[in-house]
TrEMBL record, chain A:
Keyword Transcription regulation appears in the UniProt entry: no
UniProt entry tagged with the keyword Membrane: yes
InterPro entries reported in the protein's UniProt record: ABC_transporter_permease, MetI-like, MetI-like_sf
Entry similarity comment: Belongs to the binding-protein-dependent transport system permease family.
One of the GO BP terms on file: transmembrane transport
Organism field: Cohnella fermenti
Lineage: Bacteria, Bacillati, Bacillota, Bacilli, Bacillales
Protein name: Sugar ABC transporter permease
CDD domains reported for this sequence: TM_PBP2
Listed Pfam families: BPD_transp_1
Compartments where located: Cell membrane
Amino acid sequence: MEFAGKRSGWSKLLPYALVAPIIAWILTTIFWPLGTVTRESFYNTGFVGTQGSFIGFDNYKTVLSSGDYWASWGKSFYWVLGNGFLQTSLAFLTALLLNRPGRLISFFRTWMIIPWIIPTIVVAIFWQWIFNGSYGILNHALVSIGIIDKPINLIGDTAWSMPILIFINTWHWFPFMTIIVLAGLTIIDREMYEAADVDGAGKWKQFWTITFPSLGKIMFALGLVGTLWSFNVFDLIEILTSGGPAGATTTVPLYIYQIAFENFHIGQASAASIVTAACLLIFVGLFIKFGSPKDE
Amino acid sequence: MSRKSWLIAGSTLLAAQMALAGCSDGTSNDKVSPSASSAASGTAGSGSGEVTQITLWHMEEPPNRVERFNEIIDQFNAANPDIKVTAQVQSWNDAYTKFPAAIQSGNGPDLLFTIPDYTTVIKQLGVVQPVDDIVKSLDEKHGFLEAAVTPYQYDDHVWAVPAYGMVQVLWYRKDLLDAAGITPPKTWDELAEAADKLTTGSQYGIALPASKSMATDQVLYSFLVTAGAKNIIDGNNLITFNSENIVKAYEMYAKLLKDSPADSNTYTWGEPQAQFNAGTAAMAIEKGQYLSTFEEESGRPSTDLGITTMPVADGGEEGSIYYSNAIMMLTDDSAKQAAIAKFFDYLYDPSNYGNFLNAEPGLFLPVTEDGAAEGSSFWSDPVIAKYKDQVQVLLDASKNGQLFGFTNGVASKIGQISGPNYLAQTLEQITSKGASAAEAVDWGQNQMENAVK
């Protein structure tokens, strides 16, 4: 275009100047730490702040041959799948219930988000008071009505600790998913349901043929981001169990933290981070390739 | 670039960032020299007539301790207008993760509270200054207890000034033992029998921590000492954990856990004390913090708070875990060092030292001879005065105190054992994974050997 060809030098630079701050921010906050971790993964650095020596791929060999590292992946799978299933089911159920008019519905739509806005530390303490093996309300209630005769130790039990953590995390996060699903439901054309009614389709069939497919793009985004968020949850697990008992809730982020700051192997933890990031990148690639909704 | 490509690129970046964010410590390996650290921390005292600023970090977070420390420091500052010591409260939770970065970037303190194994870790940063002269001078005036200084004495220097000692004993509810007709146990057999007999209805014989924590490490170590197995690592970092006596100690602990509340494997410091004060548990093994809260929390008279030294196994030895908390000097500025020496002189004066210790009466024990002497300010605190007999037991127990990693030379890699709580993790092998004590101890030996490689 003639106009574009006459732009001054400053006009040509302006777009670059405008994006420069965000590029600098990304370089500083993403690529610099990423570079530091990558570098550390080739050093035998122990305690934070000390100088290690270059050891090539030894940290990677240690991590890849570590039974504890792969065991933590098992815990992470359990954690992610458990959260994914429970949160999705609960979010759909709640969103469908709230996707209708009514004064009470409006009230619940507003207050339903409370669990999500509570800080994680409060959530952890709150549920600890309920599940605590000595003074927990749940134990007190169960003993009072005679279902059990002695308090049960759910958080400290190797079999129960992970399901309990998944339950608490689901309670904390399902309102967020509910809001997203609800937003998706409100934009589905009502006429499609009316047409389905005329054709004699029941509610169940309407859900699977209209509702669910219409939410495909939202579910794709939630599936991708939600999985990554869920995988990287650290605070709730650290506060409630610190990965215990006996490693029963040591997911990958917990494992990396323990190796870095309890076992004092920063180099090894860095290598574990790189390997983990690579695995997540593969997951992202596969999810996008096979999970992305097809444009019709 | 298509929308799909942007999505892929964005998601890739997000995945990488999320996975890596947790590990980066945000520091490079380039060291900042101690002098740079000092300069950055705000020395204003190199010239005459200026106020020398000293920053002190301690990790004693309870408000009563913070208040008392501040009182002592304010009194010192008032008496020394040319020096200003400023205390900043930190958390032990940040000690291993954030302090090193702060120190390396020049934002660390001039004085930092420590415990023996933490000193071996921080010393690796190359900023800890020897305090031989200060300790020698204080020792001549006040007489340091040997057990308090030894864990900080290696590599030809003393690396921290001992501040107060802590020792474990067996606490018991006299009212509950009397009601059951039980005398305070002196041996392991008596302890097991008492715990068993006192476990009845909703009451437990004893409350023990069994989580992966320092609290569990410490109580376990008291059992190791009394089993006659205090040496688990020597000065050359050789692990000697897998022994018959240690297996015996773990068997005993696992046995006692049957008389401890069901959720003991989630307990750290506070829970056993809460159970003890509530009367739900009749015995507990801990340090001296039980004195100050007993009457208020239990609603029982002070005479119901029983204390005895750690019961001993057949063929074992008397003792329990004991360690001194200390203060490291991180500045190499000579003006600051002179001011710090003056501060220590003030702190250890018997008329001040007791007030400092009684920031937490009974938990913080004197590490100097004149600090514990009759008539010193230590004994004037109302809690100490009320529980004088109990405090005397604590002081006597200190004489047989031991600390793992410092019993057979100083193990420079003890941090690698205490950091991951391998003593407690060994117990978890029994309590959560169903291993026998022998299998668990064998597992512990392997873990510790790998840790110090």
